[in-house]
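Subject: design request, 356 residues
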């Protein structure tokens, strides 16, 4: 942990100070939990009132103006990004112990290991696998035959990477995840499900992070691709032959069926289910627990099951709470109509007789 003045932090992130630039910052925290020596941030207006009571030594806010508070402020164009930069400066990322290559690994003679790798106990690296420079591979990882791992990647404990998969540079794969398992592909014939060979592979591009307990299936015929910069949360399943575009965010417990394509910069909320063989455009946002069954054009925000455009969905789902009352009123109207119908019919008959 490194101590900095608020002025130094402002210079580091390209911001400006309102208040004392000599304020000492030692750590970072939320507005509600911050104390003396902490810096916090404000990006959501609903927390603005906490500025008046926070015990933080400084707060990062946006360009829209200073807040009503006596706390020193760091004004930044993107407060959350500035907060991230300061977090890295003050705390840094997780440090990995230098262990070299443990004697308790099983590394094939035909495997190639790059320079300055840290390979822990009980790792298995199979025939013709390649591991780039500066990689960290934690205990009990299995790297299948022909797997390629780029430079500076981190593979956490108990990860399994099946044969032929390609992992690029600076990829992080968290514990207990499986890369390249067979896709869920069967041909059903006369009541029996026959397994289809999965001859594709998985390609994970630069700067991807995959959470814990995920399953990324290899393609049946074409490859499954996780494109550059995308981040996958915990307990996510990506079906065979699916392509996740660059810089997407998939939150925990998402399930994407096979042969589906997501464009770039998509955001997929927790517990979303997406059917196979559809196309989701660029910059699409899918709200939590939605069920996506159709193509989605660029830039749309959808919610619900089945997923529909967000504005329409909010109106439709907002009516649900009124359905019991509406049903009651409709029944009352039906009963009223049943009571007055005979008299209306009688009056109609009299009118017809008079006209005759």
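Subject: RE: design request

Done. Sequence follows.
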């Amino acid at each position: 942990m490194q101590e900095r003045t608020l002025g130094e932090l402002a210079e580091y992130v390209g911001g400006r100070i309102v208040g004392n630039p000599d304020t000492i910052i030692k750590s970072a925290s939320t507005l509600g939990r911050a104390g003396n020596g902490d810096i916090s941030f404000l990006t959501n207006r609903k927390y603005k009132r906490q500025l008046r009571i926070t015990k933080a030594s400084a707060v990062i806010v946006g360009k829209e103006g200073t807040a009503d508070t006596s706390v020193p402020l760091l004004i930044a164009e993107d407060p959350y990004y500035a907060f991230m930069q300061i977090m890295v400066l003050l705390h840094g990322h997780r440090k990995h112990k230098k262990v070299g290559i443990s004697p308790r690994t099983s590394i094939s003679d035909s495997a190639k290991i790059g320079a300055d790798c840290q390979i822990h106990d009980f790792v298995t690296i199979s025939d013709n696998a390649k591991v780039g420079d500066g990689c960290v591979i934690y205990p009990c990882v299995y790297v299948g035959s022909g797997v390629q791992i780029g430079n500076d990647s981190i593979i956490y404990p108990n990860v399994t990477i099946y044969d032929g998969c390609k992992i690029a540079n600076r990829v992080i794969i968290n514990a207990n995840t499986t890369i390249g398992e067979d896709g869920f592909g069967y041909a059903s014939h006369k009541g029996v499900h026959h397994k289809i060979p999965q001859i594709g592979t998985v390609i994970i591009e630069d700067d991807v992070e995959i959470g814990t307990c995920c399953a990324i299936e290899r393609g049946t015929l074409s490859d499954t691709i996780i494109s550059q910069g995308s981040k996958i949360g915990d307990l996510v399943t990506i079906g065979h032959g699916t392509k996740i575009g660059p810089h997407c965010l998939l939150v925990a417990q998402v399930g994407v069926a096979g042969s589906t394509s997501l464009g770039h910069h998509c955001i997929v909320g927790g517990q979303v289910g997406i059917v196979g063989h559809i196309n989701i455009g660029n910059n699409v946002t899918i709200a939590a627990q939605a069920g996506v069954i159709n193509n989605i054009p660029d830039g749309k925000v959808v919610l619900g099951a089945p997923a529909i455009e967000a504005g329409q969905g909010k109106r439709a789902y907002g009516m649900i709470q009124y359905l019991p009352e509406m049903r009651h009123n409709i029944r009352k109207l039906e009963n009223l109509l049943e009571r007055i119908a005979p008299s209306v019919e009688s009056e109609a008959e009299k009118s017809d007789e008079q006209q005759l």
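Residues 285 and 301 are 5 Å apart (CA to CA).
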